TrEMBL record:
It comes from Candidatus Nitrosopumilus salarius BD31. NCBIfam families: pyrE. Its cofactor is Mg(2+). The keyword Transmembrane does not apply. The gene is pyrE. This is Orotate phosphoribosyltransferase.
């Protein structure tokens, strides 16, 4: 797939994916780090990524099959905002914890009973933040069947979402990225093996 190869190379060349020893937000150790918050600093690639996402959603789900786009701050929200502009769809978002002033809502934006949404996030590891968001949405009677991430780290997110009846789609996963970089001689076999080992855990 041409986009995967091109995008993987772009991520690597601009230090958006780094290989080494990292500690993730969850406290887990990782042999690589993906910081997609850097992508909007490259408008051409950012737009290409959002367009690819839009086409994928149109083909897999259909743009008429849902009412709104939903995301979680901060990484996914930038992507979801751009996607909402492209698809001319309303945007809502779920706070990680309800605000402790004003309306004390955890879901921000115009919502109504039985509304159908598609969730957008940047990177999925265990799926924790998306799982919490899905539960918040269900509490206010919002229907969600599909979630999209740009990069799936393949460490349990897909399975966690399946348990909630939500299908997770990804534009690319960490294995596709590292294999593509390895085929282009941009990383060595040692790095590829470390990533594979991390996934299999």
């Amino acid at each position: 797939m041409e986009f995967v190869k091109e995008f993987a190379t772009f991520l690597h060349q601009n230090g958006i994916i780094k290989f080494g020893e990292f500690t993730l937000a969850s406290g887990k150790k990782s042999s690589y780090y993906v910081d997609l918050r850097l992508v909007p600093s490259y408008p051409h690639e950012f737009r290409k990524m959002v367009k690819y996402l839009e086409n994928d959603i149109a083909q897999n789900i259909g743009l008429d099959e849902f009412d709104s786009i939903v995301s979680v701050p901060t990484g996914g929200l930038v992507i979801a905002s751009a996607l909402a502009m492209e698809t001319v769809k309303p945007l809502i978002y779920v706070r990680s914890k309800p605000k402790d002033y004003g309306t004390s809502k955890s879901v921000e934006g115009k919502i109504y009973d039985g509304m159908k949404v598609v969730m957008i996030d940047d990177v999925a590891t265990t799926g924790g933040s998306v799982v919490n968001a899905i539960q918040s949405l269900k509490e206010v009677n919002i229907t969600i069947k599909d979630a999209y991430v740009i990069v799936d780290r393949m460490e349990g997110a897909s399975e966690a979402l399946t348990e909630l009846g939500v299908k997770m789609h990804s534009i690319l996963n960490i294995l596709e990225i590292t294999e593509s970089l390895y085929e282009q001689n941009l990383i060595d076999q040692n790095i590829l093996e470390k990533v594979k080992k991390q996934i299999s855990k």
